[in-house]
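EI: anyone free to look at a 744-residue chain?
SC: sure, send it
EI:
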Amino acid sequence: MLLQEWTDTVQDLLLPHDSPPLVLSIAPPATATSTQVIATLQLTLDTTPPGTVDARDIWDHPHTHPGLDPDPEQNLAQRVCRALRRAGRHAPALRTLGMHRRPDAVLLSLDEAAALLSPATGHLKDAGVTVVTSDEWSSPLDPHLVVGLNTPAPVESGQLGIGELLDRRWQFTIDGQPLTEQELDLLADAALPFVRIRNRWIVIDATLHSLLRTRRLPSQPRREAILSVLHGSITVNGRAFACRPAEGLAHLIEQLTHPAPATPGPHPALYPYQAKALTWLDMLTGLEFGGILADDMGLGKTVTAIAFHLLHSRRKPGPTLVLCPKSVVDHWKAELARHAPAAHVVLYRGPDRCLPAPSSDTVVVTTYPLLVKDHDDLKDIAWGRVIADEAQYLKNPGTQAARCARSLSGARIALTGTPLENEPAELWALLDWANPGLFATRAQFNTLYTRPLAHLPQQATAPHAVDRFQNLIRPFIQRRLKTDPALGLALPPRTETTHLLPFSREQTGLCEALLRDSLRQIQHTPSHGGRGTAVLSLINGMRKICISPAHYLDEHPGTVLADPDEAARRAPKLATLHHLLTHAREQGESALVFTTYAVADKLLTAYLTARGFRPLLFDGELTPQQRTAVLDTFNSTPAAVLVLTPQSGGVGLDLTHANHVIHYNRLWNPAAERQASDRAHRIGQKRPVAIHHLVTANSIEERITALLHRKTSMTNALLPNEEFDPAKLDATELIQLCSLTARP
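SC: here you go
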């Protein structure tokens, strides 16, 4: 036996797997008391259409089958035997058959036959063996879990309480026909693994037998039960089974997946896609769920949310609370004045903030930091609705803002153009905030839903698995992209250009010195935490050098203002920035200049001032009145330049006065960078938008871009295993990241 295994291993390496496809036809038991069944070996003929013939007929009459290639060496039987022994590594009975000189049939025990007929036989097909049955066998028993109420009456909106328990039971069908209780009792009491029912034989394995004996599962709270139905499957003993709604619950599921149009009301004028989003939000909250409106940046999520406030406040009393970044408060004030002029709007901000008793038509707009600071006052109010704008601020459930937002009452709606920026836990955090507990814990969500997708692109089941995941979350998240022609937006085109710019001699020297000193420090830092801090300091220093030596050396902006030519010689990016803005000014067009550092925006403002521009600075140091004044001046000035950071102005602002966007240095987060660009490329923009990325060639900026691109393929962008941690880079990766030599 060992010699044969060694011989097979050598032949597998040296000889092709050239056996014709094999078929094993398993006959049913002769009687109810039979202890064995016979399996007949067949070979597939290369004919049109393909056919099969018993192996015994081939061995007895080798020249009467034109579908088989001529076999002058008479070694067909040897090739078939080797294929059977190869398959026998997964099914020992086939190895026994493969030991025959001319294999044609084998007697199988009932357990061996049941194993070959089980669903988990894909490895046999990979080995070139297909298992089939005759017409005397029944189609496989199809079990699926049915979830619903004990009554078939349709479940209408609002009839189910959040904690109400739903009935769960197993239903079994053959060829789509349900089995009766008497038939199920027969199967449950029969000896395994083969049972005769409806004049045909059927395979019942241990898992199915267990389901047949316990046909009802414990009741389950409504939220969890509906999630199982939406996911479409449940796993028992490592095996997945379909999960379907009962007749009554099916009506509610239909509402979730195909909501009816919202009742006409005092809505602002909406685009058709916004009206659909309003219908969806109205349906979700009517069923006591929350939702995430994740439309692309610039599609008018704020207007849709205002329409939702007007509609929902008629059905559920209580004021509306809007949570948003500080930079967006005035935007909400303006949009509410425009689209809901009758609403009582309270801007809860500033040192003299106060909150009089709000009514159902009151909209309170405040910021995430103030939610934390005044949490005790805000949590005691019976809010009718809570709208979290730029909800990515809640993506880390451990932050104070996220914890405070979880304590608020009322229907919950999240607005964000970037529902997932780094890892699946962010998506879970938003889903869990909108629907507490519905999507289990973060660890369970990753284990059950996202982690199984992580390696699917190489698997044939990838599209099916992705569809199942999207079916799970689709009722609770709605996302449309500006590029979707079905929206009919007719936005002007946008072009993106990456400008690779050289280092100056000073920048090269600073980078080499920083890298040398940092690597020496890292090598002498044993702790992971200390090493991580040193690595982050190195990367941060490299990025500052790429912006300008003046930034890295903490020079006062006055040095740039005093000698712009010298500043451009030290940092070639500045000369390119000057060239791009000069071209925009000659066309009478305005521009946004983004940089990720608050200090750098002052350096850029000083440089542009020295070059004859009148740049406006929009940063976090401005008071609300100053922010409004800066934006008003920008929007009313031809050929204006606005310098800002993604943190201060990358979200929530409508800056369509500009049609040039310059990213002076790249963000680590591509989603946030797109969001910043979309301040200009959004509804209301009439001119083509030009987006420019300034990248220092052969530097950390170029390498970070390439590194993130490799780590954010389609699957990893949705489901990365973990966030990028620079502290985990080994020495080789760190040198490659920060070195100044050209990429190979």
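EI: The CA atoms of residues 427 and 524 lie 39 Å apart.
SC: 👍
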